[in-house]
Specification:
- Chains A, B: Pfam families: Metallophos, SbcD_C.
- Chains A, B: One of its GO terms (biological process) is DNA replication.
- The structure is a homodimer.
- Chain A is an alpha/beta fold.
- In chain A, helix 8 links the parallel strand 15 and strand 16.
- Chain A is about 30% helix and about 20% strand.
- Chain A starts with a strand and ends with a helix.
Amino acid sequence: MRFLHTADWHIGKTLNNFSLLEDQQAMFKQIEQVAKENKVDAIVVAGDLYDRSIPNEAAVKTLNKMLQELNLCDHFPLLAISGNHDSATRLSTGQDWFAYQSFYLNTSLAGAFNPLTIKDTQFFLLPFFGIQEVRNYFDDDSIKNVNDAMKKITTEMTKYFAPNKTHVLVAHFFAAGSKRTADSETLVEVGGLSAVATDTLAPFDYVALGHLHNRRALNNEKIKYSGSPMKFSVSEAKQEKGVWIVDTAPFSVKWVPLKPVHDIHLLKGNFAELIADASNYPNEDFYDIELTNKERIPDVLNKLREYYPRIVSLHRTHQAQQAQFNFDKKRVQESPLDLLAEFYSQTMGSEMTSEQRAWAEKALTEVMKGEN
Amino acid sequence: MRFLHTADWHIGKTLNNFSLLEDQQAMFKQIEQVAKENKVDAIVVAGDLYDRSIPNEAAVKTLNKMLQELNLCDHFPLLAISGNHDSATRLSTGQDWFAYQSFYLNTSLAGAFNPLTIKDTQFFLLPFFGIQEVRNYFDDDSIKNVNDAMKKITTEMTKYFAPNKTHVLVAHFFAAGSKRTADSETLVEVGGLSAVATDTLAPFDYVALGHLHNRRALNNEKIKYSGSPMKFSVSEAKQEKGVWIVDTAPFSVKWVPLKPVHDIHLLKGNFAELIADASNYPNEDFYDIELTNKERIPDVLNKLREYYPRIVSLHRTHQAQQAQFNFDKKRVQESPLDLLAEFYSQTMGSEMTSEQRAWAEKALTEVMKGEN
């Protein structure tokens, strides 16, 4: 059989307050297109369908429509699990009805031992889990970490292995040896207690993982992250996004890149250069900008946004020295004009001109009047 | 055909911070039993399945299980709409899959004009709606109130009437002539602009309403509130709760009462009487108590809760006069002891004794020390 492996849709996610819903819809249409062109027998979504446990109504409407389109309109069997960003309970709404239409959504540990068979393949759907949940399930307090937990889980799963079938695990966790690289992933303790050793996953012919957003986070032929289908943070700016097309017999894996609708660009330059270059960049894309000017430019973010409306972060190569004021009793006795002059010189690296000083004095006098 | 008419389940509702989930589950089991015993062909739930637009996870789990049991286990066709307490979007999750199993959930105005036929009956499922929504739908700004809106809606619905069928409307609104009696209903403007005249509903053979919690709120043979299946506020304490069993041919309506698991009692008496009577009342029931003692009894609520653990409200027949303090500059200059003495006399209706005064003075002195 042939299936499409994707994960980490994070429907409803924002990028520094910019909604990504339209981009997510466009990304979805590409995934749907890839599934159709490759005539897949099923689509696997390995967790984090939503970005949060209580997504807003627009996100709910959007994901409902996507799943409805893939499953009820296009008639793709769907295999999905809840990730750490999803509420297992909320996401599970409707799952008993979904199953009648070959949409298999599992959000419980117990459900992971009820494999789904499609053509030559058994799929084991393991949602994101907590260690205590696994201890309770097996009534085994000797489970100390997530790898112990996964050993128990995989051993249990192998009992349900049908011979002569391909065995695929769909899961959402941090696999040992993989690199966490992006800000938009949930913070996980790298290595050690919080990681599953890839050896533990050896019984499976393929492991379709979700959690990390970079498909290159793990370098393993049969254990793969699909990564997120689009860039969700500046730290993902240089990652190529896409989906895996997996064939079971003979086994083969093909990477199909997806084209970002609005890319994230990392720009570096001085103010004049950035403005001069602006016409080379799509207006609606996202920008992370490193500003190289030494001098302070008032209201620089808003000025740059006239050229790059969707700046998601702005850094300075030469961070202006932070003014250090000690507001002790002595300083309070200094005149506001002297304090301002000192602040100016510290921040700008030069003294106020006599014109600036005169202007400041006038402004301060006006302000003082207002106080009485 | 025969169907069961219920509404206003409000899953997740609390009664003064006491969870009602267990009571709601028991109430559900009774409804299920009534449906089985009466061999109904469908179950109608006329809105407010949840108590709030974002129900908590326990409520989500509970309602999901109830619907799953009625529809997928017992194989009852379900007909449901969203009420004003539900989020139409959130509640709609899964609805396209539900329909394959004869669970017809409608949460949109457009869907109201797509009747469902079960045996001899066409059901029109009209969710709770806003007037602007109706104006937009019909592109008609002449709609001034909810009755205008309903006239448009029913006229449109009659276009889809199949001859020789019984026509049933399922809706969630305030019908003119009905009485709002309970605190747990959402505040509606009674009569006038916010009510639907019963004349407007004349085209239907039966109207299964939700919204008001008292089935006696409206006295009409063919337009009925089922009321909530259990008491949700003290103001509903004296209402009999239940469901309607409706037969279409020949038309007949039968009331089937449900037995409350934990009833709400209205008690009145002095402290000694209330305590003496406590053994006559179930410990886990809910109580609204009117205390007739004239004198103040310190910590009276907690004392009564030793006998009636689930008091949801406590009133006094002789409410102690509310102390009126004017914290103007003059009063601030009075001594704390004088202020306390005045507060005591106003609240208790008598002066402090010399012992009380001495104790208060000592306590105040201690407090003052701490200030420096």
